[in-house]
Amino acid sequence: MNYEPKNKDFRKKVQASFDRQKFMDLIGAELVEVTPGYCEIKVPFNESLTQQHGFFHAGVISTLADNTAGYAAFSLMEADSTILTVEFKLNLLAPGKGDVLIGKAEVIKNGRTLTICRSEIYAFRDGNATLCAAGLSTLIELKNKSDYR
After folding, report:
1. Residue 104's pLDDT is what?
2. What pLDDT, on a 0 to 100 scale, did the predictor assign at position 114?
3. Quick count: other Cβ atoms within 10 Å of Cβ 14?
4. Can you name the CATH fold of 10-143?
5. Which of 21, 84, 135, 142 has the greatest number of beta carbons closer than 10 A?
6. Overall pTM > 0.85
């Protein structure tokens, strides 16, 4: 879908918000792409991010689903707004087994207050992608609220 951002500096605002998330730094996440209504984030494999079978932990996968959806929605919001997740549902479809996780999310409904996004998380191994999770998120725009503490 083609969306028009309400903030011409949306990329800068999204990147600054992403950079303040210490958890993203902890898991080695990188903001790969953000366009109006779309976000992509990648997380390289690190053994400290695994569960007992050596797969990416579902907590990392769900974090990726939440953040990609959040920043896809945030890219369309007013310059003086911030964002919070209201709810999200995640279906784990396959083990997160690979060298890197790549999360992709897109806005499917941009409302005045609530935005709905779809996320897909892929595990890449030897150049092959496996869809390991699919999510649906609802996010709220908090107008006239700083995105800083």
Report:
1. 98
2. 98
3. 22
4. Thiol Ester Dehydrase; Chain A (3.10.129)
5. 135
6. yes
